[in-house]
Amino acid sequence: MSTVTNVRGRALGLVPSRLRARATQDLAQLVMTVVITVVVAYFVLVPVITMIVASLHAGFLTTSSHWTVSNYSQVLGSASFWETAKNSVIYGVAVALVSTTIGFSLAWLVVRTNTPGRLFASAVALIPLVIPGILNTVAWALLLSPHAGALNDAFNAIGIPSFNVYSMPGMVLVQSTQAVPIAFLIGVAAFRATDGSLEEAAMASGASLRTVLRKVTLPVVRPAILSAALLVFMQAIASFEVPQLIGVPGRTFVLVSQIYLALQQFPPDYGSVGVVGVVTLVIALTALVASLRLSRGAAQTVTGKGFRPTVQDIGRWRWMGLVVYVAFFVVVVVLPLAMLVWSSLLPSYEAPSVAALHSVSLANYGHIAGTPTLLNSLKNSFFTAVVTGAIVTVLCSLIAYITVKTRIPGRKLLDGLASTPIAVPSIVMGVGILYFYLAAPLPVHLYGTYAILIVAF
Q: Which end of the chain is more exposed for a tag (fewer CB within 10 A), N or C?
């Protein structure tokens, strides 16, 4: 009897112990959530709030600075601003349409068809993610320059009119090559998350492949398509390289290029920059919120057992799918990289030709190896990339754990804060950080140090 009583006592004693352990764990998670939320809010909100404050000041960063709304009346009352805003919307919509169409088409071929080379296509579709946007933009400028572009020379040789890359269509083309991977990744996830039994049933009922695509496949993944289009739209209007290197020479201005041009004035018009930045941010944030809502409502198949996406036999069309893979690889990967390599081997740029082969050498690479400032730039880039990558990986792992694995109040706020930088144009983020660290009376000065680069990245 005493043995039973002791066992019961120990068992009952475990309850308070477990409750204390659980309470301690909950408290630790809550503290961690609060700390991480403060850190993320600092990274995200400081440049945004600084930009808003700048837009509401006349003479920002000067001793005569004062609150005003005149910047808004001046900028929003300008006809050129609305023309620029219209260009931004047209540019973003066009890039979204092109990139989403290509990305989801590739995703459908990879996930849902028996097209050969699907592993190759998956790798190819992601390569543009690792090519720096500025290098990709420069490569396309060299390929499609109206006077000395290598592709235009080839077009003219066979009687095809030249394509002027310094135009709105040129901007859309170059930006779309960088945005396709985003749409592709979302498309792959959407097609893998839906069972193909509905498509099988439709085909068994005699429906053609085109009818199945139009009436079954596309309606099922429509939320994912719209979500991807909004995300690409947001990325397009927030990007800087293409509008600056392609749009400005062609006199096609968008909001981010207007911000940069305003900063080049002397003295810089910080108030106008702030207004344009706020407008750009509002457009991008609206697209982000709509994209997140659509992605949460995307269709998924719920069954009592696991399933694999149905692979459809598209017959002879599978070879056409392989041609699409190869064409995409050549246009998006081979041509830009080949142009960059070719340019790096010449003392000054020349269009590819047999005569230019006599100038090919590795002298430029030797010049880099013998130039301390260039080597120092490489060291700086490597250092900031490694440190930033480590910080972001740890921080985002903790954010993901909190938002997915816990029920802590406020986790949705943390989730939203962590998603917000996607919608903040890089130039807006950079200008906001610049303003803050120039104006804020901080005990430690970060301007001109590695630290401010790491904070920004």
A: N
